[in-house]
Amino acid sequence: MNRIAATLDGMNTIVATVTKWLALLMVLVQFGIVLGRYVFGVNSIAVQESVLYMHATLFMLGAGYTLLVDKHVRVDIFYAKAAPRSRRAIDLFGHVFLLMPSMAALLYWSWPSVRNSWKILEGPISVGGIEAVFLLKSLIPAFCILVMLQSLSEIIKLIVRGPK
Predict the structure, then answer these.
(1) Which of 15, 24, 34, 115 is deepest in the core (most CB within 10 A)?
(2) How many whole angstroms separate alpha carbon 133 and alpha carbon 114?
(3) What is the residue range of 16's domain?
(4) pLDDT by residue (tens digit) across 71-90?
(5) pLDDT digit string, tens, across residues 20-49
(6) How does it sit in the membrane (predicted)?
(7) Which pTM does this prediction carry?
(8) From the CB of residue 70, how many other CB atoms can be counted at a distance below 10 Å?
(9) Which of 124, 137, 133, 136 is nearest to 45 (CA)?
(10) Does residue 80 sit in helix, strand or coil?
């Protein structure tokens, strides 16, 4: 069981290692957009949309890793002062009854839109934009799957190893 959890953790770590470079690239491209527009009077909608694509990719593919390193948003009204055993119960409940079902629902309800987008190779958001909205929409199921895999890993670790 520990090996399964480690494999799932490794998958999200690899995705995050690759994805984190988008943050730097996004800043550089945005700097180039501002420089191009205000210094040289040059503008490109496709380049502007690329920042949107990088931002979406960074957050959607980084969500599983965020769960792995326990940096996600937590409403800790009870959690902060709870005993380790209670924290474990709260975490298990959250993963099994809240996170996994919500990700499954999002995956289920978004899939027709993603499928149709691929079917027609959906074009740009704006005229002159990037002709790959189908790739942008594909981030939704990727997000769901990566978060669900990491949630499964966390469930395994909570059951096998106990509280942190």
Answers:
(1) 15
(2) 9
(3) 2-160
(4) 988 777 888 889 999 999 99
(5) 999 999 999 999 999 999 999 999 999 999
(6) Multi-pass membrane protein
(7) 0.92
(8) 10
(9) 124
(10) coil
